[in-house]
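User: Here's a structure from my thesis project, written as structure tokens. My advisor, Dr. K., wants to see whether a designed sequence matches the one we expressed. Can you design one independently, without my sequence as a hint?
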């Protein structure tokens, strides 16, 4: 399993989960690459993610998850915004834990060069995400009303 470094920049994550154990468990389930790889996870607030999104993607808004792929054993970084995650979970009628797990799976797959730029890529990635989520005991993240 990869080495996972977790930084908690938004303390609200502590109220809902044991963030370090949770993130490691989900990433271990989604990682298919070199077991010596290193992944950094940052659980942040919306402002932090907004600034990264603006700087690196040219988008002047926050988003739920950002993935920054690296080469070699440093697989990359996954950054998740608490506020966006929490709002989306409520809007989509998902639990916080389920939606966080999905964003971690999604980000981890991006670090393994999966993408969703075309319909074919998206279908492949979504099927794999669903399989991993079900392996973790969560419902299909692409079905509505998945509480």
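Assistant: Designed independently from the structure alone:
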């Amino acid at each position: 399993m990869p080495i996972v470094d977790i930084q908690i920049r938004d303390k609200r994550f502590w109220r809902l989960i044991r963030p370090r154990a949770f993130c490691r468990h989900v990433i271990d389930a989604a990682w298919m690459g070199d077991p010596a790889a290193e992944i950094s996870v940052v659980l942040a607030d919306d402002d932090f993610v907004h600034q990264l999104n603006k700087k690196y993607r040219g988008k002047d808004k926050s988003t739920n998850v950002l993935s920054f792929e690296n080469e070699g054993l440093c697989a990359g970084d996954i950054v998740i915004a608490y506020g966006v995650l929490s709002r989306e979970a409520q809007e989509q009628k998902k639990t916080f834990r389920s939606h966080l797990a999905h964003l971690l799976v999604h980000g981890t797959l991006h670090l393994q060069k999966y993408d969703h730029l075309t319909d074919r890529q998206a279908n492949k990635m979504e099927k794999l995400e669903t399989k991993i989520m079900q392996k973790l005991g969560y419902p299909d993240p692409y079905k509505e009303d998945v509480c």
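When you compare it with your expressed construct, this may help: The chain has six helices and four strands.
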